[in-house]
Request: fold
Amino acid sequence: MKLDDLNIGIIGLGYVGLPLAVEFGKKYSTIGFDINGSRVDELRAGNDSTLECTPEELNSSPLLSYTSKLSAIEKCNFYVVTVPTPITDDNTPDLTPLKKASEALAKVISLGDIVVFESTVYPGATEEVCIPLIEKLSNLIFNKDFYAGYSPERINPGDKVNRLTTIMKITSGSTPEVADFVDSVYSSIVDAGTHKASSIKVAEAAKVIENTQRDLNIAIINEFAKIFNKLDIDTEEVLKAAGTKWNFLPFKPGLVGGHCISVDPYYLTHKAQEVGYRPEVILAGRRINDGMGEYVATQLVKKLASKKIHIDEAKVLIMGFTFKGDCPDVRNTKIIDIVKELKDFNMTVDVYDSWASSEEVSAEYGIDLITELKENEYDAIVLAVDHSETKSMGVAQLRTLGKKEHVLYDVKHVLAVGESDLRL
Reply:
C-alpha cells in the first residue's frame, strides 16, 4: 500500500477521533464513522459539541465525510479505532467498546488492510483481545491477510495549544514493514514528528505509564495538601517556594477525573496482577486521588461547623462540574463525589456549569444543573472547577452568592491567598 492509495476510516468521532479525522481529511479520502447518529448529524452541520474543532476547522477537510452506517466504510483500507476504554465500577478495564469496534471491523475489513488502535489499553490488549476477534469473525489471518498497528492518543481535551499536530506521535506496527508504513502515515499529518516504537506492546505500555506517572505526581501533591492543611500552611505558597528549585515538578492538588489520568492506571495494575505482580505505589496513588472528593466535602463540613452554620439542610453551590476548566467534558468527573458526600450530610446542593451539557449531566449523573446564580442564597460556595468564567467573577462577586455568614471554599486555587475561607 502507498500513501496515495490511502482510504481512511476513523472508528469513533469523540475527543480523539474527530481531530484525527479532520487532519487526515485534509490529505486523504477519509470517512468518520460513529454509531451515534446525532453526533454524525451535528458534524455534518458543521458543529462539534466537544468544542475540540471549530466550524472553520471542520470545513478545512475537503476529503472528509461522516457516517453512522458501517457499510459506508467497507472500501476503506486503513482503519483507526478511537473508541473509549473506560473502567467498571470495581475499577477493572471495560473493553466492551473496543470489542464491539473489533467485531464491526471484522465485517468490513479486506485483504491487505491495516487496523490501527489508538484507544488506551494495557500492554498486550491489541494482540490478545482485538486481533483474535477480527480474525475469528472475518476469517482472515493476522499478518498475512491483514495487519495492525498501535498509535496511542495524546489528546488533551480543551487544550488549544497542544494539539494533534503539535504533539509527537508514538507509532508501531505488527511487522517491520507495517510499522514503517504506519509511521509514514502519521508523519504526513503530525508536524511535531513521530517516535516509532519497536513493538505494539511497547507503544501500549508507553501510553499507559504516561498518565499513571501524572496520576502519581498529583497524588503526592494531594497528600502534601492534606498534611499542610493540618499544619495550617497554605499549600500553594509551599509549592511556589519549592518550585524555585530547577528540578521540582509543577503539579497542583485537586480532583483527578476525566477519561485518562484517573482510568489508565487501572489498566496497568489489572495486567500487572494478571501476571502475578501486585502494584503498591500505583494503587496507593489511586486511593489518595479517588478519595479527594470525600476529603473536600469533609473539610467543608468542618468549616461550616466551626462557623456555627447548621450542616443539616445547609445550601451549597458547586461552581463547575466538568473534569477540568474551560472544557465541556464531564466523563468521569470527580465533582460528583463532592455532591454525593454533601447530600449524605442532608445538604441541598446546586451545581452550576455553563460549559457542561445539561442533558448529558442529567442523563449520566442524575443532576439538573442550575442556569442562574442568585445572590444571598448559599451557606457555602465551592469553586470546584477553574473555568475562566469563575476566575473573572472575582472574590467580591462570588461572595455575593453567599448568605451573610457563609464559607467560600477554593478547591482549584482560583483566588489569591487569603481571599477564601478554605483552600485545598
Notes: The first strand starts at residue 7 and ends at 11. DSSP finds 14 helices and 13 strands in the chain. The mean pLDDT is 95.
